[in-house]
Amino acid sequence: MYARHRRAFLDRMADGDLALFPGASLAVRNHDVEYRFRQNSDYLYLSGHREPDGLLLLARGIEGVPESSLFVLPRDPERETWTGRRLGPEGAVERLGVEQAWPAAELAQRLEEFLPRARRLWYRLGDHPRTDRLVGRILSSARNKSRQGVHPPAALLDPVPVLHELRLHKDEDELALMRRAAAVTAEAHLLAMAQAGPGLGEWELEALIDYTFRRHGADGWAYATIVAGGANACVLHYTENGDQLADGALVLIDAGAEFSGYACDVTRSFPVSGRFTPAQRDVYEIVLAAERAAVEKCLPGEPWAGVHEEAVRVLADGLRSLGVLAEPVDEIVEKELYKPWYMHNTSHWLGLDVHDAGTYTLPGGDRRLLAAGM
Length: 374
Known about the structure:
By secondary structure, the chain is α+β, with helices and mostly antiparallel strands. The protein has helices spanning 2-10, 41-47, 77-83, 88-96, 107-114, 129-143, 160-168, 172-195, 202-215, 278-296, 304-321, 329-334, and strands spanning 17-22, 28-30, 33-34, 55-60, 68-72, 100-103, 120-122, 155-157, 220-221, 226-229, 250-255, 257-259, 262-263, 266-271. The chain contains twelve helices and 14 strands. α1 crosses α2 (41-47), α8 (172-195) packs antiparallel against α9 (202-215) and α10 (278-296) runs antiparallel to α11 (304-321). The longest helix is centred in the middle third of the chain and has 24 residues, at 172-195.
């Protein structure tokens, strides 16, 4: 899968092009405790490498430069005793299918050799300061050696627009991973619904959901699990999960598993006591109808924005039926009178990030049409 992703990007490069994609580093939580490592999604998409401090180099048609190279942390028995096993350069070639791999400490030396051979450099400045400094130093040095026949790349290109367009269209391997994440997510939600009851802590449902993800082999959550009882659900990204569930209230759960880096995202609301009040049911049925109308618009050839527009029309009609708004549906939609109750969009891309890569409009402002694999 990752080799196909690399090939797809290489096919969009020209002869003489070189591209650099840094991976993520460990982040400190506090003092000498680090957060659990999560790889940079662009780097993961192209490399499959899940260890920190790596860098992927792709080159097309540059003599003496391998087409795909990884710079990775070397094997180190002492460090691995403390922090876990590493692939090392040999393992990276064997397991990840790249043409060549070197110890990360050789990055500067290799870039000093390779960069002056490139006609164009694909690299996004600003996301990885340490690599920014290294690349900048090497390019500056090359400019100062022009009389010696050393020349830096003539152009700097941002790889992200091309890469994110590739990430937007999932292949069958990616879709299979996302379906596994979805299945695990669905089971966790159903277990939480069965367990919920008055007096239970939001944190207890959070623990059940996160446990279920891990029990079924998921990496963990794709985003911090939200369990919001009562008015807490009016905070869109409520993550404290610190209150007890009240009898007669609704509870909203927004939770999704991550499987091999690929995310799921599901939000459901249900009554804590197991039975809706009449007012709760009225609102719930309107939201359910809006969801179903939106899903019916999720078809190849339909505009992405049409999904939201369809849901908004149903919600606008529902607000009228409840007596919350009196204006005609067209006016409610046109003037966005629904916004106090529905201030966000209906949908977003999903993949290696829960709010995944890819634009929602095309260059020039044209509406993006949905396609198979999105």
